[in-house]
Amino acid sequence: MIAGLAGIQRNIDKANRTDRKVQNLASYINAATLKAAHKRMSGKKASGVDGVTKDAYSENLEENLNRLVARMKKGGYRPHPSRRVYIPKETKGKMRPLGISSYEDKLVEAVIAEILTMIYEPKFYDFSYGFRPGRSCHMAVRETIKDIQYYIQYYYTNWVVEADIKGFFDNVNHEWLMKMLEHDIADRRFLEIIKSFLEAGIMDNGKYLDTEVGTPQGNGASPVLANIFLHYVLDNWFDVIVRRHCKGDCHLVRYADDFVVCFQYPNDAEWFRYALESRFRKYGLELAQDKTKIMEFGRFAARNRKAKGMRKPETFDFLGFTFYCSMNTKRTFFRCKVKTSRKKLRSKIKAMKEWIRNHRHAPLKWLFGKINKKLRGHYQYYAVTDNIPDVKRFLRLTTWFLLKYLNKRSQKRSYNQETFFKGLLKTFPLAVPRTRVSLFYRNAFGTVV
User: Fold this and answer.
1) Mean pLDDT of 274-280
2) For residues 177 and 166, what is the distance between their CA atoms, to the nearest angstrom?
3) 3-state secondary structure (DSSP) of residue 287
4) Cross-strand partners of 209
5) pLDDT tens digits, one per residue of 103-144
6) Which residues pair with 263 in a beta bridge?
7) Which positions ≥6 away from 114 have C-beta within 8 Å?
8) Partners of 203 in the β-ladder
């Protein structure tokens, strides 16, 4: 928690006890909380349209903060437009837009995000993951994967709806988002500050563009605002309306704007898909039709499809993993297993190959140290139960890339297989993968299943 915000919790608790809106929030965006946000801000982040860095802002920190607070009190504070940059997506040829705020705006965004988190964290559902305190990225992904696997493997899941929101962050409806915030917050000045960020615009290659919809990825408050929007549009609707309508078992797991829904009966899945399109349309969102589908999936899927003369059950991708129907080692009971998705694995392999090729002339000790760091990062995310073969494949290809490009450091071949594997890799061993996250569960009798 940012220092200086401890007192706000009493305000929030009082509002929750009396079922009233939270008030007096703008006063917590003050010199003390902004200074605390400044201390926590990374100095390595890219600068916004004003070009100001953390070091530059620190030179006259007290004066800069006092001027910022004075402008906010007088209503003269206006956020700068975000600087738009593009980063490549896994899909070939596609780019993901990011919005980089100016440094001063980053400080205000950080305090706003912390205040909103304190208000809404108790309201969010347990099946909502991503960008939430106490849930690191890796932890959230692991728990998400375990939840999906658990619902499919041990509940009455026979059908899965895999859904994707088309350009979610670029299409968040400002009017609806502000109504959702007004449902819980009474402080008009605080709400006006949030609205000013939403309408600040963007600078794309020197050209100013209005932002009538959307909350740019990269904005400090964007993740929590996105969670609030989907909490009301999807999570709460699913819990209150969908669960009541469905005749069988149903479960939702959401990570940021990606989600998967499990159903017991096909009619429930079909109704949900139809109702979801209508629900999203109301709030200005759209399903990506090519990435949204209903599939038979679960313990009986293979048997049912085989009886109909159909192929084995379809698979679905979620958070970089492919979920597929299988059996345990002894083939005595059904298990939902995961492996690295083909698209992600291909992307990771290509990135490692390019990195080794570009750094092959570096000193060996430094080179192997960096590669081991990259390998451990890959293992930390992907080394889960059932996925070790794909993780070992990544290591194996990395090893062959090293042999290939180290031999291209000069015209003379430096290593053959024997000198490389029995010599160089003995001196600079590569990190070996092991299962980091177990996806097994223990039943009521304590037996691992």
Assistant:
1) 95
2) 18
3) strand
4) 202
5) 898 999 999 999 999 999 989 998 888 888 877 666 666 777
6) 159, 250
7) 1, 2, 5, 33, 37
8) 83, 208
